[in-house]
Specification:
Keywords: DNA-binding, Phosphoprotein
Number of domains: 2
Structural class: alpha/beta
Organism: Ramlibacter tataouinensis
Number of helices: 10
Distance between the termini: 56 Å
Largest sheet: 6 strands, parallel
CATH architecture of the largest domain: 3-Layer(aba) Sandwich
Protein name: LuxR family transcriptional regulator
Strand content: 5-15%
GO molecular function, one term: DNA binding
Helix content: 40-55%
CATH superfamily of the largest domain: Response regulator
Shape: elongated
CATH class of the largest domain: Alpha Beta
Order of helices and strands: EHEHEHEHEHEHHHHH
Strand order of the largest sheet: 2-1-3-4-5-6
Length: 209
């Protein structure tokens, strides 16, 4: 039996899922929650095999919740439910520990199949999202700056604008040593060795106005 917990802020959607899974002999919905705090409490209370996690939750996104879940529930298999089919969301979810990423408007039999795949220790994304993810990976290989994190991209733009590391640290409220660490990572990811080369890279790829 696959023990399932649902975290989604729409009560009618949760009720619909409960009805769907009620017809499946190998899936049991052990509980549900409308927000991430209640969901964490119920994960502590129940033995859960698979979690269905909405990407849009009050106060905190499902992607942020994934970062909380990974160290606290290392054996939990999570499927992210989303209205977003853009590959960056799916890739962010999978990198944060999700085992599946599915669209909320997918067919019921596909969702049931996804749960069974994930429960067996496999990963699951719908074919259309998988194709988009592969295209995005190809794009990252061609453009190294696409592999930068949001914070790294922010610091890159400030550096290209000529801001000193101390000024960047003050603006972002982080230690200058942390800014220096980000700088090293940015240079390494972009394959450049100096600020001058960084500026040239940014201009070549039109990363600055």
């Amino acid at each position: 039996m696959i023990r399932l917990l649902i975290i989604d802020d729409h009560a009618m959607f949760r009720a619909g899922l409960r009805k769907v899974f009620g017809d499946e002999q190998d899936i049991e919905v052990v509980d549900e929650a409308g927000d991430w705090r209640d969901g964490l409490a119920k994960l502590e209370r129940h033995a859960v095999d698979v979690l269905l996690l909405d990407i849009n939750l009050p106060d905190r996104s499902g992607l942020e919740v994934l970062d909380v879940l990974r160290p606290r529930f290392p054996g939990l298999r999570t499927i992210v439910l989303s209205m977003y089919c853009e590959p960056q969301y799916a890739m962010r979810a999978m990198r944060s520990g999700a085992c599946g990423y599915v669209a909320k408007d997918m067919e019921v039999d596909e969702l049931v199949a996804a749960i069974r795949h994930v429960a067996r220790g496999e990963r699951f994304v719908t074919p259309s999202i998988a194709a988009s993810m592969l295209d995005a990976i190809d794009g990252e290989a061609a453009s190294p700056h696409k592999r930068l994190s949001p914070r790294e991209s922010q610091i890159l733009r400030l550096m290209v604008a000529g801001e000193a590391l101390t000024v960047i640290g003050s603006q972002l409220i982080i230690n200058v040593k942390t800014v220096s660490t980000y700088r090293r990572r940015i240079l390494a990811k972009l394959g450049v060795s100096s600020n001058a080369e960084l500026v040239q890279y940014a201009m070549r790829h039109r990363l600055v106005d």
